[in-house]
Amino acid sequence: AGLIEGSHLSKVYATATGPLVALSDVSFDVNEGEFISLVGPSGCGKSTLLSILGGLENQTEGVLLLSDKEHDGPRAEIGMMFQTSVLFPWRTIRQNVELPGIILGLDRKQQAEEADRLLDMVGLNGFGDRYPGELSGGMRQRVALARLLAHDPKVLLMDEPFGALDEFTRETMNVELLRIWEKTSKTVIFVTHNIGEAVFLSDRIFVMTPRPGRLEGIVDVDLPRP
Ligand code: ADP
Ligand code: ADP
């Protein structure tokens, strides 16, 4: 079996105007080390599916397995990143990156060293003692990427992580993400509504229908990566 296995996942939200079916009978498998993109029009349930995968929401129906165990809450093996990232403005960049590991009870000194190593890796060498307010949007997402990696989660769930950045910065970040993915053999699920980006990044693309979100098809991408 794969690392992540969803069977017949549905999600119905209760809203003021009645039940809203956001996801309908979605089944899939994700293998360890795969880079998956999740594409589909706005409102098709991509963020909902990612939230269920991250344990932030519970599915209404269906079963989600992580390493063959039922998965229904946040856990350390899973890291999430969003389009805009909240950094603590009164903490330094290094402290922002260390924080998840410290909360998880990892060794402080090791986390500080790891933070500096990761800041180097995302091109923020020397920025550890600066504050988030001094950074551009692209640099803040680099910090968020370093923070995402700091406690070494197995699975990265990324919801349009570079979608708010200008085209050039986004392409740079995508290339960087691929480099990191190749080095660390993480399993990535990456939400985007940009097909070009999905093709560029992924091993497989999960294509979702407009509401209610269903899995319409899975595309194997067989293109050489840079
Ligand atoms: P996408 O990420 O593909 O744009 P979403 O998962 O955000 O789609 O949303 C899917 C549908 O579920 C949309 O119709 C959205 O309005 C609805 N939805 C998402 N979150 C909630 C919520 N917390 N309460 C009610 N409806 C929601
Ligand atoms: P579009 O012109 O519709 O945005 P493209 O296929 O030109 O579609 O590119 C979409 C996205 O895919 C880019 O913004 C970038 O994020 C990613 N991408 C495509 N090709 C590359 C590349 N060679 N290097 C880095 N990123 C790329």
From TrEMBL:
PROSITE patterns: ABC_TRANSPORTER_1, ABC_TRANSPORTER_2
GO MF term set: ATP binding; ATP hydrolysis activity
Keywords linked to the UniProt accession: ATP-binding, Nucleotide-binding, Transport
The protein's name in its UniProt record: ABC transporter related
Domain ABC transporter residue range list: 4-226
Source organism of this protein record: Pseudorhizobium banfieldiae
Superkingdom of the source species: Bacteria
Xref: SUPFAM superfamilies: P-loop containing nucleoside triphosphate hydrolases
